[in-house]
C-alpha cells in the first residue's frame, strides 16, 4: 500500500550501525550492531519491539532519539533527518535515568518537576500524577526504584510528545501502575495520533496494546513491524508455539526460543564462535591459580 509522506512517522532505509571505539573510527566488533534495517511506521501506531538481550532494540531506540550518529543509511522522523534536523516532540525514556546522581539526591518531587518545567504543563502533569500515583512530597533519595521510575515517567510524558521511544522503563512498576500507564499511552496514541515504539521483556497484559509487533535478532529484523494480531501465515505453527499466559507472551517466548536455537545451530556449524555458557578448560586460568594459593577453606 502506498503511503504519502505526511502519514509516516518513522522512515528507516538501509541502516547499518557499528559501535565505534572511543577516539577512533574503528568498530568495536567486526559485526554491526544493526544490519540493513528498512521499515516505515505510520503516525498513531504503537510498535512493540521483541527480541532477546543484545538483539539491537536499545541501540535502535537511541539512534532514533538522535543520541548517536549512524555510519550508513537514512533515518527520518516526520520527514526530517534525525541527526541534522531532529523535530520537536521526540521523547526517549530509558532505564539509565534512574542511575543519575541528581535524581537520587535529597530533592522533593514537586521541586524536581518544577525544575524541569512542570509548571508549563500543569494539566498534563496533574493528570499523570494521578495516573502514576505519585506523591509530590516524596523525597527523591528516600523512595523506591519503582517510585522513582514513576517520577521519571511524569517528567518525560507531561509535554505533548509526538513520538515516544520507551526502552524497558516499565520494569520497576507494579502491575496496577503499569496497567494505568499503558491505558494512558493508548489514549494518547488514539486521540492525538502520537506514535509509540516500546521495547520490553514483560508481555503480560500487552495483548491489546500494540498495533504492530516486530522481531529483532542479531541486529536485524526477523520480522519487520507487522500489524498485530498477526495473520495466521506469520504465526508460529501451533505445534511449535510455546503456550503460556497471553497470545503475545506465547509468540514472544517462541521467537526467543527460536533465536537461541538458531544461535546454537550456527555455533555447532562453526558459523560463529561459542561465546556463551560454561567454557571447557584443561588448564586453570591465571586468576584461578593465583587465588588457589590463598584459599584456606580446605
TrEMBL record:
PROSITE patterns membership: ABC_TRANSPORTER_2
Q: Does the keyword ATP-binding apply?
A: yes
Instruction: List, in alphabetical order, the Gene Ontology terms for molecular function in this entry.
Output: ATP binding; ATP hydrolysis activity
The UniProt keyword set, sorted, is:
ATP-binding, Nucleotide-binding
Segments forming domain ABC transporter: 10-243
ATP-binding keyword on record? yes
Region listing for Disordered, in residue ranges = 266-298
- What is the superkingdom listed in this entry's lineage? Eukaryota
Compositional bias of kind Basic and acidic residues: 289-298
Q: What is this protein called?
A: ABC transporter domain-containing protein
Record organism: Marasmius oreades
